[in-house]
Amino acid sequence: MALLMDVLPENIAGWNEVLSGGAHLWQPGQLTPGQLAKPAGHLILLAEQLHKSALYSSLQVLDEAGVQVEVSGVKRIAERDLLSLRLSAWSPALKARLQAVADGWDLACVPALPEADKPGLVLMDMDSTAIQMECIDEIALLAGVGEEVAAVTRAAMEGALPFSESLRRRVRALEGADAAIIEQVIARMPLMPGLIVLVEGLKAMGWKVALASGGFTPFTGHLRQTLGLDADFANTLEIHNGRFTGEVLGDIVDAEAKARILVELAERYQIPLSQTVAIGDGANDLLMLAEAGLGVALHAKPLVQEKAPVCLNLLSLEGVLALLQAR
Fold this sequence. Notes:
This protein has 12 helices and 14 strands. By secondary structure, it is of the alpha/beta class. Keywords: Amino-acid biosynthesis, Hydrolase, Magnesium, Metal-binding, Serine biosynthesis.
């Protein structure tokens, strides 16, 4: 029996009962029971409360592109509404057009999604992704060189400065500062909203969770220990006689290193790359996002917004859990 769109509730969460009978195909003005024979992509719409207008705006883009649509389900995950659609065609251009009309909701338009009921791996950045700060900026603030270091951080995250060069410049500015600053920063390190929900949800799914950060080992180590993460990778600050020397020890965790870490962890845990998720916010994360089965930019810089496979701008890390449990 066809469902007339005009009579369906305005809040999509109220569609759960009427869609419980199975998938429906979109036809102008109505939903008719049925499935696409060969879906080529997925469109997931997400919001704290998802309204019918989000679907109408998306359907207009899809209709203009000649894409057939299957409405496959409504869920509420981590206190967020989610509507799953399957598409007869997918392209980066289609994703960009859907993103352009998203006003009040987040979306993912991708050719494939990881499967929650199979082993998987999430690798995330730390600064401004797992936590709501840039640790080196906080260290610099307490060391009295905050403005100088924050300007270099902004340039690096926007892609205007090579990450390794920016890191060495920022660390050099810390020379002579008391290394006890690290503990002060750890004590006031705010977690990103949704982080605990995401980690607990991933553990319940049996997934691995790790950090790959251009920041520093004391901070990633603290998060790994307190959250029970599986691994962490970051840079090592050289400390001598309780003070920063202004140098970084060993190889720097830059964009290439993050992408390599993703592949190496997937191999270690025997997880296919299609079952990996990368989360980040800066230019230093783009290679990692591109390498993963699902790359998610969180509240990202403009350059990253333009290039990332998926952008979450309104929701936070709980939105990643919703995407993984959408199918």
